[in-house]
Amino acid sequence: MDYPKSIWIVIHREADITRSIFESQRMAQSLGFDHGRAQMIATAVSELARNIIKYAQKGKIIITPLNERRRSGIEIICQDTGPGIPNVDQAMEDYFSSSGTLGLGLPGVKRMMDEFEITSIVNQGTKVIIRKWL
Predict the structure, then answer these.
(1) Residue 87: how many other CB atoms lie within 10 Å
(2) Fewest CB atoms within 10 A around its CB: which of 11, 23, 92, 109?
(3) Which SUPFAM superfamilies has this protein been placed in (predicted)?
(4) What are phi and psi of 48, to 5 degrees?
(5) φ/ψ (deg, to 5) at 60
(6) Measured distance CA(17)–CA(134) in Å, rounded
(7) Helix 14-31 with 35-51: angle, nearest 10 deg
């Protein structure tokens, strides 16, 4: 099977969030994810893209097909150069919010995906890598 290449999207306005949602779902479906799992991936991307706008104003999302020996899937990298997260462990707790929301965003993304990595440095930015396997 000929897999699509990575898609890079600069995030700095609402239309970019919409594009990242569309492209992540489209790639997931092209890789063989069913509608429900493709929607789950798109929901995770939506949350991460909205966080970029909300906290950093600008960043990027890279959507990449994964094809390893015995499995294939999708990887999404979301990165910004915003204020960073002072306490990542606290941010990963359900119901914690630094902005008055429900506080389900990052923990929810982690639950929806098979792999979740986050690194954040105050005053330098945040990088989240998520993967979902077929």
Answers:
(1) 12
(2) 92
(3) ATPase domain of HSP90 chaperone/DNA topoisomerase II/histidine kinase
(4) -70, -40
(5) -145, 155
(6) 24
(7) 150
Percent of the chain residues past pLDDT 90, beyond the cut: 75
Q: Say what the pLDDT of residue 68 is.
A: 82
Q: How far is CA 124 from CA 45, 81, 86, in A?
A: 21, 5, 11
Mean pLDDT across 18-33 = 96
Asked if residues 56 and 126 have their Cβ atoms less than 8 Å apart, the reply is: yes
Kindly report the length of the chain.
Answer: 134
Say if residues 132 and 113 touch (Cβ distance below 8 Å): yes
CA distance 82 to 133: 29
Which amino acid is residue 77, in one-letter code? I
Q: Copy the structure tokens of residue 132.
A: 């979902």
Residue that has been written with the tokens 């991936």 in this structure:
41
DSSP, res 55: I
Can you tell me the distance from the alpha carbon of 88 to that of 98, in angstroms, rounded to the nearest whole number? 12
